[in-house]
Specification:
There is one protein chain. By secondary structure, the protein is mainly α. The chain has one domain (about 5-85). The chain is built from four helices and no strands. It has helices at about 5-10, 20-30, 30-60, 65-85. About 5% of the residues are buried. The structure holds zinc ion (ZN). The site of zinc ion has 6 residues, from helix 3.
Length: about 80
C-alpha cells in the first residue's frame, strides 16, 4: 500500500499526527515511489515561491487597467495645459 498525495502533503506540512508520521517515514525509507512523490510536492512549493518572488520583482500595479486610465488622465491634463499656453 502506498501513500496518497494528500497524505504526503500532510506529512510534509507536519499536520499528520506523530504516530502516522513515523509510519509514513518508515514507509518512505524503503519506498522510492512515495519518496519521488514527496519530492514532487517540494518542487511545487519551490515553484510557487519563485513565482511569488518574480511577481514582486515585476512591480506591476495591482490593477493594470486602473493604472492605464490614470496615465490617460495625466496625458490629457498635459495636452490641455500645452494648448492653453
Ligand atoms: Zn509507497
Amino acid at each position: 500500500m502506498h501513500y496518497a498525495i494528500h497524505e504526503l502533503d500532510q506529512y510534509r506540512s507536519r499536520t499528520m499526527n506523530l504516530f502516522r508520521r513515523l509510519a509514513c517515514r518508515c514507509h518512505l525509507l524503503h519506498c522510492q515511489k512515495c519518496r519521488a512523490q514527496l519530492r514532487q510536492l517540494e518542487q511545487d512549493d519551490l515553484f510557487l515561491a519563485e513565482l511569488r518572488q518574480s511577481e514582486q520583482r515585476m512591480d506591476v500595479p495591482e490593477n493594470p487597467s486602473e493604472y492605464r486610465k490614470l496615465c490617460g488622465i495625466f496625458e490629457e491634463e498635459r495636452h490641455k495645459r500645452e494648448s492653453s499656453i
